Input
Amino acid sequence: MLVATPYSNDEICQHFGHAPQFKLFTVEDGKVVESVVIDTVGSGHNALAAFLADHNVDIVICGGIGQGAIVSLAMAGIDIVPGVAGSPDKAVKELLEGTLVAGAVSGCGCGGHHHEEGEGTCGCGGHHDDTCDISGKEGLRSFNCACH
Output
């Protein structure tokens, strides 16, 4: 499994569409076996979603992300964990432990509506139990979701 974070100045870049780099983590048997920082090739949600799909990324842990990027990543089959700040290494460790807490998505433009209709902006489908299930990803458990 491959986990990516938008990356800038040793932290998760808080503007997905303008990330200068991504840090990629190769995960095997629930452990990070390799990490590498790569430069992006362009900006904007469509270009970055295609870039990540070309690298076979499974999950993106990010800070701020807009609805266009959410849709582009979903169309590429990439799951997201939004609203995360700080160290990418710590975030991936918490993801693997099942303790990573996703924050509210900034910039989705929905004004908070539609979440009750099954459109949670974290990509979880807007369920109402505050837990997003990504357990189908190589033994990962759920993570806490604060987006709805």
